[in-house]
């Protein structure tokens, strides 16, 4: 059973970025307005995610990291109107199988916080009073300690830097989609990046990408009924100098489906084609627009079960989504690329 647990967990928990993603999503599901992410040695020695959310109720702590425990879904039908990031009850348990985990938590009712140390199976092995305020702090030490090959693979300087960059991009995505959230990233005690609470998506884009990157972005909006789909976002102004509205990587093209940061190849391709078609210059074709696209559809029409990390989603009405995105692009850039 230990080997089975290790194998399946290693498929859910694939990297430092993926651990942080799961922990941040738990914090957001708990209603946090402030999240601190602290890493030591690029997260391989220690990852700590602290939030000021509602905390974990004492009755739930014994099972919080037990496989398939979730406090978020009661009935199968709940999946049809899913509003939380988590629903599988898999992350915490899987992290326990591949690292050393401690959870400190305090709800509004608790007088003080308690720190729980968990074992490989997610069971509490010890607990002690702690001094933290309301919310939850999850510490993940020695990630992949029992998967030496994977740990080795993430240890090279090159890989560490790539992963840190990916993590920064992911944090940016949450910063943009959650303007009211305060976020901070610390590595080896140095603050690498932080973002204060702001009022709206535009201010969040400004806080995240800086004034020059957003100077040429304009708000866009497209709504369609039957089937229902709402597109909102900030796109490069038609005709703007592409050296100021695009990058050589897709890392500043932020796409969200029902508030989840996603990678959607076909939508990305459409965005790129329409954007590039404005320019006669071949160079434009190799560039990715800096933009934010927020797609909202009824929860029942999106399937987030496609990959364990939920970065790829299946839209039941994919054609509708693509058509809507295309309509928005045509209204903005005025023609159809061939
Ligand atoms: P899921 O998010 O799919 O429910 P997880 O394994 O990520 O599963 O978390 C298990 C449970 O632990 C959650 O359902 C929640 O009750 C609790 N939990 C985990 N992290 C937090 C947090 N930061 N704040 C409050 N509760 C949490
Ligand atoms: Mg979760």
UniProtKB/TrEMBL annotation:
Protein source organism: Oreochromis aureus (Israeli tilapia)
Name of the protein described by the UniProt record: HMG box domain-containing protein
Residue stretches spanning the membrane: none
Domain of life: Eukaryota
Family note: Belongs to the DNA mismatch repair MutL/HexB family.
